[in-house]
Amino acid sequence: MTAAIAQTAANAAVAQSGAQSHDTLMEMAKFQAKQRLSPEDSELFETYRGEVEQIVQSLPPQFQSNVNVWSNAITNVFGRHVSDIVKIRVKKGGAPSASGDGPSTPSLRGQPAPVKTLLTADEKDWARKWDISDDEYRHGKEILEDQDKHFGEVLTFDSKVKARKERARAAAK
What we know:
2 domains
């Protein structure tokens, strides 16, 4: 009888320490997820903390101590309140996406002009010997450097030199 009482007390102690351990792990996961956030998002986390905790606590206990679960719950809650978050950030005078997840206004700059690679003197000599322009030589050089991308331009069954030159010039334009 005393052994049964002692065993029951030992089981209760283990269960209690296990619950404390789970709570500690859960708090650590929450802390780590919060550390992943930008300073602005950390403030928002405090605003929506209850909702995030409610989502995580609705999951089975083995998932509650996973930092990725907490991060996903935070993202989920922030997504539900995105219009409110944008309003808060605009009121503060910041950009709607102040967390660094993209430009707040569209960029008006276009793509930069492609830079022509300079040919060496030897390459220019070969271009003259083959009666092709520097641009055609550059294009051929690009094809050789990235053959998989230009396979269709290189593969030919036409043995006529003139037709191949015309295709190469058309592809270079």
